[in-house]
């Protein structure tokens, strides 16, 4: 279990990917609506 292991958290941070062991941080719905209105 090291940097080369894609199923571990350390391997995901090393490659910069996301998955089950390293999920993306969820944004709450209020900030998503504000961002979508600004970009339009």
From TrEMBL:
Tree of life domain: Bacteria
Biased composition, class Basic residues, residue ranges: 9-27
Biased composition, class Polar residues, residue ranges: 28-40
Region described as Disordered: 1-40
Taxonomic placement: Bacteria, Pseudomonadati, Bacteroidota, Cytophagia, Cytophagales
InterPro entries reported in the protein's UniProt record: Ribosomal_bTHX, Ribosomal_bTHX/bTHXc/bTHXm
One GO CC annotation: ribosome
Protein name: 30S ribosomal protein THX
Presence of the UniProt keyword Nucleus in the record: no
Family of the protein in this entry: Belongs to the bacterial ribosomal protein bTHX family.
Keywords in alphabetical order: Ribonucleoprotein, Ribosomal protein
């Amino acid at each position: 279990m090291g940097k080369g292991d894609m199923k571990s958290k350390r391997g995901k941070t090393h490659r910069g990917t996301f998955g089950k062991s390293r999920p993306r941080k969820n944004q709450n719905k209020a900030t998503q609506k504000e961002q979508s209105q600004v970009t339009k």
